[in-house]
Amino acid sequence: MPASESQFVLPLSATGICCLLIFWWLTTPIKQETALRLPGEDSVPVVASDSNLKTEVVSAGQPIRGDGSASEIRQAWSGFRGPDRDAIAKGQPALARSWPDSGPPVLWSRELGEGYASAAVAGGCVYVLDYDERAKADTIRCLSLDDGREIWRNSYPVMIARNHGMSRTIPVIVDNYVVTLGPRCHLACWDAETGDCHWLIDLVRDHGVTEPNWYAGQCPLVDGDRLIIATGGKALLMAMDYRTGDVLWQSPNPRGWTMTHASVMTMDFGGQRSYVCCYSGGVAAISTSGDLLWDTTAWPTTFATCPSPLVLPEGRIFLCSGYGRTVGSLMLQVQMTANEMSVEQAFTLAPSEFNSEQQTPILVGKHVYGVRKRGGQLVCLTDDGKEQWNSGSDHFGNGPYLIADELIFVMDDHGVLTVATATPKGYQRLARHEVFPEGHDAWGPMAMVDGRLIVRDMTRMVCLDMTSRKPGGE
Question: Counting Cβ atoms within 10 Å, is residue 98 exposed (0-12), middle (13-18) or buried (19+)?
Fold first, then answer.
C-alpha cells in the first residue's frame, strides 16, 4: 500500500467504529427502573421484596446478665404514653420550675442503636427494644433506673436496613411480663426479671401482616388480660393472652386494611368499651369481643399515619397527621342509636391550624396540647378546635412532649428540652437546655417516673432529675 494511502486508513477506521458505537448507543433502549421515593427514606429499601413470604422461624436466645441492679423506685411508666396512655405523668414529686446554667442534673446516659425506641419503666427497671446492628438482632435491654447499667439483655436475629433509624416502638409491661413489637413485626414476650423469652411470633409469616414503610411503629396495648394488636391483614385487630401468646379472637377485616404506625387506644362510650385505631384505609373501632362496631374512610393513610387517635369524652376522637394532606386534623363524633354505633365528621382543621407528623397530642380537661408541623409551634386548642395560644418563636419540629405537675416538657428535633406552663391561659417558657449536644432526630416519646425524665435522640438515652430536690436528696 502506498504511504499516501496508509496514513489515512487507521484514522478513517477509528472514525467509523466511533460512529457505529454512537449509533448503537442512541438507538438501543436503556433499561431503567424508577420508583417513587417516599418522604423520610434514606435511599435504602425499607423491606425486602419477599417480606410477606417469609418462612424461616425466628427464635430468641438466652438472656445475658449485666452488672446493673434494679432501683428501689417502684413507680411505673408501663408503656406508650404511660399507665393511662395519655402522656400525663401523675403522682410526681414537686418538679423544678427553673434550672441552673448546666441544666437539670443528668442521672445517667447510655448509647443505643439508631432509632426512636423509648422507655417503659417498672420495678426499678427501664426496658427498651433496641437494635444491635453488629449482632443484627432486635435486642430487649433491661437497665437500672438508678444508673442506666444493663441488668440483662436478650435478642432474636432479624435483618434491618438503615432507614431513618432502625427501632421505633415502646414495650408494654404487665405483671412480670414485657411485650415488644419489633421493626419487622416480631411480637415477643419476655420475663421482666430474668429476660427469658416466653414466646415469639412473626406476625408477617403467621398472620398475613404487611410491614409498614419505615418499619413497625405501633406500641402494644394490654387491656386486662388481653394483648391487643392492630394487625391488619387477615384481621383488623387481634386479642391474645399475653402470658402464652395464644390468640383469643380476631376481628373481621372486610376492607382489607393494613397496619400503620399508630397505636391502639381504648374508648368507653355508650356503655361499651372499644379499641380504636388508624389503618391504611381509615379508622375502625372493634368491641372487646372482636366485633367491628364501626369504620370510616374519612381518614385514610397518606404515606404514613403516626399519631394515634386521641379519645375525648362524649364519643369524640381527634385525629391528626402531617403527610401530604389538605386536612391537618379531623374530629370524629360517634353516635349510638338503637344499640348500634355510627360515626360522622364533627369538624376539620387545616394544616396551618393544626397537624402533626409523628406525636400524639395530649388532652387536659377541655384543652388539647400538641406541636403542629407547620412552624413547629406548641399549640393549645380548645376541644372544639379553636386555637387558644401558640408558642410564637419557640419551635420544636417533630419532637415529643409530656405533661406533669402542671408543666409541659417539650423536646425539639436537635435535643433541646424546654419546660413551660401547661395552662390554657397562655404560653410561658420557664427553662430551656440542650440535653443532646449536636443531637438530631430526638423524636422518641418521653417517660417519667418519680421526677426522672427519660429522653433520647437518634443514638443516646438520658435520664434527667426534673425535681426540685437538691443534690444529695436534701
Answer: exposed
3-state secondary structure at position 430:
strand
Which residues span the domain enclosing 271?
200-299
Distance CA 304, CA 357 (A): 9
What is the pTM (predicted TM-score) of this model? 0.88
Q: Per DSSP, what are the bridge partners of residue 410?
A: 401, 418
Instruction: Provide the 3-class DSSP secondary structure of residue 16.
Output: helix
Q: 410 vs 110, 306, 369, 445, CA distance in Å?
A: 21, 18, 11, 10
Specify if 157 maps to a domain. no
The verdict on residue 295 lying in a domain is yes
In the structure grid, which three cell numbers stand for residue 119, read together? 422507655
pLDDT, one tens digit per residue, over 205-236 is 999 999 998 999 999 999 999 999 999 999 99
The predicted-structure confidence for 190-205, as pLDDT tens digits, reads as follows 999 999 999 999 999 9
Instruction: Give the DSSP H/E element, type plus range, for residue 88.
Output: strand 88-89
Do 473 and 465 touch, CB atoms closer than 8 A? no
Whole-angstrom distance, CA of residue 146 vs CA of residue 79:
19
DSSP 439: -
Asked whether residue 413 is assigned to any structural domain, the reply reads: no
Number of domains into which the chain is organized: 1
